[in-house]
Amino acid sequence: MPGAGRGPAPRRELPGWETARAIAHRAARPLPPRRLPIDLALGHILAAPLTALTDLPAFDTSAMDGWAVAGPGPWRLTGDPTGVLAGGPAAPQLTDGEAVPIATGARVPAGATAVLRSEQGGVADGRLSGPNPEPGADVRPRGQECRTGTELLPARTPLTPAALGLAAAAGYDQLAVRPRPRAEVLVLGDELLFRGLPHDGRIRDALGPMTGPWLTALGAHTLVTRRLGDDAEALYEAVSTSRADLIVTTGSTAAGPVDHLRGVLRRLDAQLLVSGVAVRPGHPMLLAELPGGVPLVGLPGNPLAAVSALLTLAAPLLSALADRPTPEERRAQLAEAVRGHPTDTRLVPVRCPAPGEARPLSYAGPAMLRGIAAASALAVIPPGGAGAHTEVRLLDLPTA
Question: Which residues form a coiled coil (predicted)?
């Protein structure tokens, strides 16, 4: 009898969670750099080292309000009674025994040997008296922080507010950066409602409001979220005409009667790089490369499974596109045991009430968002589970 004795079909081997993340990271190359004004560069990644265009400070400056003095005191006051102001003209050269009032940040006159702080000196009859400051006291010498040509920040540094301030001080008006990858979200499924309460077998769309902001938090510039239902032609047109650097779809990753994503990818001659991952939740996730080289990440339709796919596939892709450095791995000890899957990695929402501690949360099923909404990270649980006080890897979740 045909097929007798064959037993159940073997489980299709899926790539492990770490392997899938590595595939996703290799699937993208950094986007070409562009130049942005400093006030638009926040959060971008430096595409080239930041080297100083000037000495910092560019000239000897006063670190305090007081008097620029030459030699030992007492000193005879000279020059404009208002003194030397920040951004003002240079004062005449001082000779020994002379002093001039000076403001913080003002250029120290030639011949000055130190600055005497205002609280340390006193003036009477045009003469300044006070303790003799050490040579160079309260003077920031030219080039104290750096000299012209010094590398201040290496390429691939994220541009924080402090980094932008440093770039401005070093003489930059524009910076060469990796642009934020442009992402487009395509929400699939006729069963989804976009307002109001669930009814007649239809459910509210949780992924549309969540996916775009999540991609933004991961470093993308989310262009649009489009709701396509279960329309194969609309999906084909949306994917084939997209101008995004990354396309993310929600739902339709399985092989049901209205799951059109895989058929559309075959029609487009896309290369399927990941077709399922050995991770729970989210194992039906997929990653494809379109003929033009644009990656497409397919998120499963269940909310927590979709989050798992975002962190497994979309996060490393976006890091590669933006040339972001790999974040430092963070680990913590589980406050209690977590049951594992026999063969797959589990991603479990946890709260971290103290450094180095991870407390698993309830409501961690594939279709649930309640647990992850209260979580600060996902714990990576190896196959077979992890006992209490076991140290596990954490995936930090976006906070804004």
Answer: none
The tens digit of pLDDT for each residue in 294-315 reads 999 999 988 899 999 999 999 9
Distances (CA, A) of 113 to 36, 84, 139, 144: 42, 15, 9, 16
- Tell me which DSSP letter residue 311 carries: I
pLDDT tens column, 51-80: 999 999 999 999 999 999 999 989 999 988
Q: Rounded to whole angstroms, how far apart are CA atoms 264 and 332?
A: 42
**Structure tokens that stand for 91 in this block:** 């004062």
The DSSP symbol for 38 reads: G
Tokens at residue 207, please?
A: 């992924």
Helix (H, G, I), strand (E, B) or coil at 302: coil
Pairing between β-strand 330-334 and β-strand 357-360 as defined by DSSP bridges: parallel
Task: Tell me the average pLDDT of the chain.
Answer: 91
pLDDT for the residue numbered 230? 83
List % helix, strand, coil for the chain (3-state, nearest 5): 20, 30, 50
pLDDT of the residue at 120: 94
Which of 197, 244, 252 shows the shortest CA–CA distance to 225? 244
Q: Which strand ranges, in their side-by-side order, compose the sheet holding 182-188? A: 221-229, 182-188, 246-250, 295-299, 286-289, 271-275
pLDDT surpassing 90 at residue 167: yes
Q: What is the pTM of this model?
A: 0.82
Distance CA(347)–CA(20), nearest Å, equals 14
DSSP state at residue 269: T
Question: Which pLDDT score, from 0 to 100, does residue 317 have?
Answer: 96
Helix (H) or strand (E) holding 21: helix 17-26
Angle at which helix 17-26 crosses helix 315-322, to 10 degrees, equals 30
Asked if 160 and 60 touch (Cβ cutoff 8 Å), the reply is no
Q: What are the structural domains, with CATH classification, of the chain? A: 17-30+179-322 (3.40.980.10), 35-51+153-178 (no CATH), 61-140 (2.170.190.11), 330-396 (2.40.340.10)
Contact predicate 50/151, CB 8 Å: yes
Tell me the sheet residues that pair with 183.
Answer: 222, 246
For residue 359, the SS3 value is strand
Which two three-digit tokens encode residue 233?
A: 């032609």
For 179-335, strand residue ranges (E) read 182-188, 192-193, 203-204, 221-229, 246-250, 271-275, 279-280, 286-289, 295-299, 330-334
